[in-house]
Each structure stands twice: as structure tokens, then as C-alpha cells.
């Protein structure tokens, strides 16, 4: 269950990153409120997952899911650049996440 909560928390990290971008430096009310709410849910999920998962594993997976999710949303929704170098970087992050999961005993 901790892994499911951790992945969900990582997805909420993507939500808050995207809504923070949409908030235009916290100058727009609704995206700013979504940012703060998603941050709270994301951090609460991370904290819950850390009750059973090791710190290094939980934090690495949480930030990795957020990073890859933000990368995908940036390209798919915001029209950010898709280049071979960026895809390679994302693939390396995913590889690190897989290794972190495989090395975890929890």
C-alpha cells in the first residue's frame, strides 16, 4: 500500500508543479490554490509512505515520479522542447527509479 500512496503523492507533485506554472508566480488565485492544495496532499502522501519505506527510497521515487511527470506534462501540454538529450535524461531517471525500487526491501 505504501508504494501506491507514494506513486499517488508523486502524481500530486506533478499537479502542483503544473499549477504553479499556471499561477504565474502566484499572481493568479485558482492555480495558486490548486498548487498549495496539491502540495499538501503530495507531502502528506510522502509522509505516510515513509512510515514503512526507507527515506532514501521514498524520497527518490517521489521526486522521480514528479520529475518525469512534469517532463511529460511540459511536452504534452505546454509545448516544451522534445529532444534526444532530454529523452535520454528522462530515461536515466526512470532507470534510477527502477533500481531504487528493486533495491528496496519494503
UniProtKB/TrEMBL annotation:
Q: Which UniProt keywords apply?
A: Cell membrane, Membrane, Transmembrane, Transmembrane helix, Transport
* Keyword Cell membrane applies: yes
Q: Where is the signal peptide?
A: none
- Looking at the UniProt entry, the stretches that span the membrane are 33-50, 57-78, 84-102
In the bilayer, the protein is annotated as: Multi-pass membrane protein
Q: Which domain of life is it from?
A: Bacteria
Major localisation: membrane
InterPro entries named among the record's database cross-references: EmrE-like, Small_drug/metabolite_transptr, Small_multidrug_res
- List the Gene3D superfamilies: 1.10.3730.20
Protein location:
Cell membrane
Does the record carry Nucleus as a key word?
no
Record family assignment? Belongs to the drug/metabolite transporter (DMT) superfamily. Small multidrug resistance (SMR) (TC 2.A.7.1) family. Gdx/SugE subfamily.
Record protein name field: Guanidinium exporter
